[in-house]
């Protein structure tokens, strides 16, 4: 199989990790940087990983400040926060060939459908990243645990391209699952994200501290049950056992600062539209009540208002 070219839009904790893996897997990967650009041009990109540290030297790193400067590619991996999705169409357009696969490595519900409409694409892929990874500083990523990706497609004609992407990930040392329905897979990821991202930001604490409080564990379980009901209202049935499995795994994982907590602490806008508002709207359309999820969302809106004002 001929090696494909990749573009990574958003070279942070997620995009930097998976992009660097693909680079070391023998793929040509082009990285978009913002504030880190000058640093990585001098120092390269470094990943401290519990699987073993690795890096891309400055003279081997294909770094850019604008997608207009980048070549057209076979695959675009978007790892920006969903708070930047209003810019996605203009960022991605210069990178597209007729058969380019765009994959959103983002959290939440609804982004694939929006982007497919904006760019008039026949298909858009989605990737759910089950990973504990943080950005320590410019061009410096700390990969704490996990790393598996679940891939899915919005638009059936893109499935062969998605299968080829999955193989490139596997060849680069990344565990991959491929789902037929990205919408169902996103609901499954939201089952964890909705309670733990939001509660960590409101409580200003990590996963280990939350799991040591029985009352917070019970609240997380209740929010998960509400997400399960909302998913069912959109024809996605999540297994009830998945809730206890996720809670058990969260209790076992290393203390983890969620992405939303880090965004709050660093004064960055919170990812509320795709992680909460869209799910609440879908549930409301089917008269499904999500009182505890909605209360959490309202508190996050208060926190977010102070950040963006």
UniProtKB/TrEMBL annotation:
Every copy of the Ketopantoate reductase C-terminal domain together lies at 181-300
Pathway given in the UniProt record: Cofactor biosynthesis; (R)-pantothenate biosynthesis; (R)-pantoate from 3-methyl-2-oxobutanoate: step 2/2
- The enzyme class is oxidoreductase
Ketopantoate reductase N-terminal domain residues: 6-154
What does the entry list under GO cellular component?
cytoplasm
| Catalytic activity field | (R)-pantoate + NADP(+) = 2-dehydropantoate + NADPH + H(+)
Q: Which UniProt keywords apply?
A: NADP, Oxidoreductase, Pantothenate biosynthesis
The record's annotation in InterPro entries points to: 6-PGluconate_DH-like_C_sf, 6PGD_dom2, ApbA, KPA_reductase, KPR-Related, KPR_N, NAD(P)-bd_dom_sf
Known Pfam families for this protein? ApbA, ApbA_C
GO biological process annotations for this chain's record?
A: pantothenate biosynthetic process
MF-aspect GO terms: 2-dehydropantoate 2-reductase activity
Q: What is its EC number?
A: 1.1.1.169
Instruction: Give the function comment from the record.
Output: Catalyzes the NADPH-dependent reduction of ketopantoate into pantoic acid.
* NCBIfam families for the chain: apbA_panE, PRK06249.1
- Please report which protein family the annotation says this sequence is part of: Belongs to the ketopantoate reductase family.
What protein name applies here? Answer: 2-dehydropantoate 2-reductase
Specify the taxonomic lineage.
Bacteria, Pseudomonadati, Pseudomonadota, Gammaproteobacteria, Vibrionales
């Amino acid at each position: 199989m001929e090696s494909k070219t990749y573009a990574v839009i958003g070279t942070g904790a997620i995009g930097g990790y998976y992009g660097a893996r693909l680079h070391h897997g023998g793929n040509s990967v082009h990285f978009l940087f913002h504030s880190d650009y000058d640093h990585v041009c001098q120092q390269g990109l470094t990943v401290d990983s519990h699987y073993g540290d690795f890096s891309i030297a400055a003279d081997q790193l294909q770094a850019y400040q604008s997608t207009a400067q980048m070549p057209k590619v076979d695959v675009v991996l978007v790892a920006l926060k969903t708070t930047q999705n209003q810019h996605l169409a203009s960022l991605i357009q210069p990178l597209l060939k007729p058969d380019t696969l765009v994959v959103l490595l983002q959290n939440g519900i609804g982004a694939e459908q929006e982007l497919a409409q904006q760019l008039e694409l026949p298909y858009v892929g989605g990737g759910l990243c089950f990973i504990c990874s943080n950005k320590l500083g410019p061009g410096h990523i700390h990969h704490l645990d996990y790393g598996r990706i679940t891939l899915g497609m919005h638009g059936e004609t893109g499935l062969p391209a998605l299968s080829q992407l999955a193989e490139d990930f596997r060849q680069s040392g990344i565990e991959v699952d491929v789902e037929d329905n990205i919408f169902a897979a996103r609901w499954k990821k939201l089952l964890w994200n909705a309670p733990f991202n939001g509660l960590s930001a409101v409580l200003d604490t990590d996963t280990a501290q939350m799991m040591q409080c029985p009352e917070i564990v019970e609240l997380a379980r209740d929010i998960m049950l509400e997400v399960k009901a909302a998913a069912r209202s959109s024809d996605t049935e999540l297994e009830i056992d998945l809730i206890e499995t996720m809670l058990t795994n969260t209790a076992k994982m290393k203390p983890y600062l969620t992405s939303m907590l880090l965004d709050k602490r660093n004064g960055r806008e919170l990812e509320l539209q795709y992680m909460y508002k869209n799910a609440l709207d879908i549930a409301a359309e089917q008269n499904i009540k999500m009182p505890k999820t909605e209360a959490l969302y309202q508190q996050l809106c208060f926190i977010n208002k102070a950040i963006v004002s």
